[in-house]
Input
Amino acid sequence: MKVLSVCGLAAVLVAWAGCASSKSSSSWTPAGDALVDGRAAISQGPAKDRVVWQYRTALAVLRRGQYAEAKALLDDALLTIGGINANDKEAKKSRSLFSEESRKTFRGEPYERVMAYYYRGILYWMDGEPDNARACFRSAQFQDSDTENKQYSSDYVLLDYLDGLATVKLAGDGSDALKRAQAVSKSGPLPPYNPKANTLFFLEFGTGPTKHATGDYAEQLRFRTSQSVVRSALIKIDGVTIQTSPFDDLSFQATTRGGRVMDHVLANKAVFKTSTDVVGNVALVSGAVLAQNRHTQEAGLGLLAFGLVSKIVSATTTPAADTRSWSNLPQYLSFAALELPPGPHVATVEFLDVRGQVLPSLTKTANINTSPTRDTVVFVSDQSHTTKTL
Amino acid sequence: MNLNLRKCFAPFELAIAGTLLVGCASTGVKNPSGVPVTEMRADERGFVAGTGVESQDLVAVTDKMARSILGIPEIASAQGIPRIVLEPVVNETRFPINKDMFLTKIRGQLNIKARNKVRFLAREQMATLEREQALKQSGQVTSSSDPHVVEFKGADFFLTGKLQGLTTRTSAGTSDYILYSFQLIDARTSDIVWEDQADIKKQGLEDATYR
Output
């Protein structure tokens, strides 16, 4: 009877806790191709992971010059990350003791959300809508405003610089934005705005940060960064060569955000998991000792039951941090604006290492047709396809 | 014996229940569930800050603008039918939007509410119209009037607008104030014959899992 009682209680708890941490399984099989996997994951994978796949796939197609698909993917992702997500059931569950943080709908850390707006801004500018591009750059900077240390709040150089450039292009005064960009620039004076510049090069290189977890229960979110081999780029067009340095470093941005509110929640979960485990151990040992004695057998069995339950509760507590990452982001963002006569041009972009040596295998060529009526936008990544026509 | 056992278990069951209740991982986090977005009057003091342009804003703003335009003497008492050209709205907020929707909606409202009081010129179709005119002039297609006479109408007024935003973010949440301004400009004199504004403020706080 006693045994049945204990087992029954344990079974109920296991079932209850098990429910809360059930995982949704994906219904697609990875094929090893970024685009194929991305599209399959978006259409058939768990809804909670859709945004991370939209991020990855959008960047993959952007690098291939498939701008329409990139726009559609980013627009859908921005619908999720642009709203205020209050009273969301899955988000609430991800805060609970027995559900993982990764149960929530993925929106990404601020540096990831920033990049979603940044890429969409580039695409708006490409479509001749610099004001909507500016709106995206402003929203991107806004995403970075929630840092623990205000020193690193809204400190993307390129976003403020582009905000000002778009304003200048729209016949406004971009000087305030330029001042803000200059104030946070770590690479010296920024180039002054040329309102007549009609060809905009958005460059990116290196491998961006990814996430991993540390701590006894993987409850501490950490960022894995690597130093890019590429440190700068040369743009060669119409006999003119321009060297561009990084405006922003995503590894720096990811690691300077500071603690999240969710870190506090996960730390509490970890403490709870440890406490219940220790209490369980003590109760089991004490219960086993007491159960040996005929006079204290009942109390001993009670303690054993309590210890077992406590261990089960501990085992089902899930403090693990959410490590889903936008895994194909670059490390460095760079930019250059040129004034070119309308018509066809061939641009070559060479990527340089730390010693200023060209890395020939990464050189890209772009066939550009500069428009007489609007800015021509060129997006080049060291992971882009070699030749593209714009 | 059963009674004793129950007595023996009772404090532990209570302790387990208590532990589960008290051991909430969100303890210490203010508003862990976030605060739902609340639409407020622009002059109302908000508890935090907000979000972007949504369909209800577009409907409310354009309805107000259409009614306002109809009341001005340049339209209500005009000799003949004034011709209006829509100029793109300028977006200065932090929200990327389909700007043309505002003017399209205002045009639709005016066409419904003031049939034959104003006419809109399809300037965005000029390339198509000129191509058609060229075909008529070359005799490749028929024409019901002399194709060499220019019949494209000039604008009497330009209707345009601007969206401006102000964003605040604190630990209490995010607030966005958006000012929608529209103007009707006399094409001959450059007089701003009409201007009206609408403003909307929204605010909200994210779930703690996203903070």
Q: What stands out?
A: The two ends of chain A are 79 Å apart (CA to CA).
